[in-house]
Amino acid sequence: MLALVVGLLPGAVSPADARPDPRWHFYTRDRTRYVSPWFAGARRIMVPYGCTRAPYYDPDPRCAHHRGFHHGIDVAMPCGTPLYAGRRGRVLSPSAPGRPGPAYGVHPFRIRSAVGGHVRDILIGHARRVYVQPGEWVRRGQLIARASDSGAPDGCHLHFEVRLPGRGYTGAIDPSSYLMLRPA
Ligand SMILES: [Zn+2]
Fold first, then answer.
1. M23ase beta-sheet core domain spans which residues (predicted)?
2. What distance in angstroms lies between residue 47's CA and the mean position of ligand 1's atoms?
C-alpha cells in the first residue's frame, strides 16, 4: 500500500522503478543495477565509456572495426529521475571553455570539482530541469536536475562525463571512479 501511495506522488520515482523506456538499447552485457550518489534508484548502464558498438558516434582511430568512442557513461533511467551532486563543486557558466554541443541536450551543465589536487569538470548531459545556477556552489547530495531525453534519441538517461578542466570532449577521461557505481 505504501508503495502505491509513493508511486502516485508527482515526480516520485520508486527505487525499484521497472518501467523500461522502449527506446533504450543496452550496448553492454552488464545487467547489474547500480546505485550512485549522482542519481536516485538502481539503474543499468546503457553505454559504457570507451569504444562501443553503439551507432551514435563517429568512427574513432582508437577503436577497431570502425567503432566510435563514447566519452562518458550512459545510465538508463526514466524521465524525471532526480539527479544529485555526487561531490562538492561549482557550476560552470555554459559559455566557459569546453562548452558542450547540442548532442548533450538543451541544458547540459558542468560542475567543476577538486579532490586531491585534481580539478575536473563533471558534465551532466540530457538533463531537462536544472535546479542550479552558473557560479553556484553545490554540496554533495543536493538535487541538481532531473533526467530527460533532451538530445537523446535513445530515451531518457544520464550521460555522465568527466573532463580535464576547460577541455572539450577530447579532454574526457574514464568517469567510473567519479560516478561511484555500486551494485544495488
Ligand atoms: Zn552518452
1. 69-165
2. 7
Q: State the distance from the centre of ligand 1 to the C-alpha of 118, rounded, in angstroms.
A: 23
Tens digits of per-residue pLDDT, 67-79?
999 999 999 999 9
How far apart (Å, rounded) are the C-alpha atoms in residues 142 and 159?
18
Q: How far is the CA of 57 from the centre of ligand 1 (A)?
A: 10
Asked if residue 1 belongs to a domain, the reply is no
Q: How far is the CA of 99 from the centre of ligand 1 (A)?
A: 16
Domain coverage including residue 61: 27-183
Cα 70 to middle of ligand 1, angstroms: 6
Residues within 5 A (CB) of ion ligand 1:
72, 74, 159
Number of domains in the chain: 1
Number of neighbouring beta carbons within 10 Å of residue 96: 14
Which of 120, 119, 122, 34 is CA-nearest to residue 86? 122
Residue 124 lies in a domain: yes
Region of residue 126 (left: phi > 0; alpha: psi -120 to 50; beta: else)? left
Rounded to the nearest angstrom, the distance between the alpha carbon of 161 and the centre of ligand 1 is: 8
pLDDT tens-digit map of 11-65: 444 544 557 899 999 999 999 999 999 999 999 999 999 999 999 899 999 999 9
The predicted pLDDT at position 131 comes to 97
Query: Does 167 reside within a domain?
Result: yes
